[in-house]
Amino acid sequence: MTAAVLRRHGGPDALEVRDDWPVPSVGPGQVLVRVGAAALNNTDIWTREGAYGLPGDPDAQAGWRGAIDFPLVQGGDIAGTVEAVAPTWTVRGSGAGCWSILRSTTARATTRCRSGCSAARRTGVSPRM
After folding, report:
1. 1, 55, 80, 118: least CB-packed within 10 angstroms?
2. For 74-111, how does the pLDDT look when each residue is reduced to its tens digit (9 = 90+)?
3. Pairing state of beta strands 89-91 and 72-73?
4. Contact in structure between 63 and 84 (CB atoms under 8 Å)
5. CB pairs under 8 A, 24+ apart, for 50-55?
6. How confident is the model at residue 127, as a pLDDT?
7. Burial of 103 (0-12, 13-18, 19+ CB in 10 A)
8. How many CB atoms within 10 Å of residue 33?
9. Residue 86 contacts residue 30 (beta carbons within 8 Å)
10. Band of pLDDT at residue 30, cut at 50, 70 and 90
């Protein structure tokens, strides 16, 4: 898959566009979304810059959820279609549309709609009972 990969804190040169990034596997309670559009927001920029600090060390470089394990694929503001679902989920209709304002924090992650999120409810994706 194509991904903008954050390699370290810094300026725009800390990002590397990769066409060979591995597609993440779907974990429990998750759906994988093929991103059709993505937005860039202040959290993406400030995370890249390391502008959030840490408790007790406001000058430390960190993301909005704390220290970051690089490499990181950012991108929580997305719209796309459901590509794969966890075995415990049901999708009503193939290629369900999805939007998300969730943030991924692991190097292998891409944006996913998670259990109970507005995106999952709006697309007809729901946990199996």
Report:
1. 55
2. 877 777 877 887 777 666 554 556 655 444 433 233 33
3. unpaired
4. no
5. 50/9, 50/10
6. 45
7. middle
8. 26
9. yes
10. confident
Q: Closest by alpha carbon to 23, among 98, 101, 111, 89?
A: 111
32, 84 in Cβ contact below 8 A? yes
96 Cβ contact partners less than 8 Å away, ≥ 6 residues apart: 81, 82, 123, 124, 125
For 38, the token pair is 């993505």
- What is the per-residue pLDDT across 45-65, written as a single tens digit (0 to 9) for each? 999 999 999 999 999 999 888
pLDDT-above-90 percentage for the chain: 27
Task: Report the C-alpha gap between 92 and 19 in whole angstroms.
Answer: 31
Supply 63's token pair: 């993301």
Helix/strand/coil (H, E, C) string of the chain?
CCEEEECCCCCHHHEEEECCCCCCCCCCCEEEEEEEEECCCHHHHHHHHCECCECCECCCCEECCECCCCCEECCCEEEEEEEEECCCEEECCCCCEEEEECCCCCCCCCCEEECCCHHHHHHCEEECC
